[in-house]
Amino acid sequence: MDLFEKLKENRGPLGQHAKDAHGYFTFPQLEGEIASKMMFNGKEVICWSINNYLGLSNHPEIRKADADAAKNWGMGTPMGSRMMSGDTKYHVKLENELSSYCQKEDTILLNFGYQGMHSAIDALVDRQDVIVYDSESHACILDGVRLHLGKRYQYPHNNIEKLDKQLERATSIIKETGGAILVITEGVFGMAGDLGKLKEICELKNKYNFRLFVDDAHGIGTMGNNGVGTGEYLGVQDEIDVYFGTFAKSFASIGAFISANKDVIEYLRYNVRSQIFAKSLPMPIVIGALKRLEIMRTDTSLRKNLWFITKKLQNGLKENGFNLGVTQSCVTPVFLSGGVGEATNLTVDLRENYGIFCSIVTYPVVPKDVIMLRLIPTATHTEKDVEITINAFKEVKEKLFSGEYISDKIAQI
Question: Which domains, from first to last, does the chain contain?
Answer without folding.
Answer: 10-47+300-401 (3.90.1150.10), 60-298 (3.40.640.10)
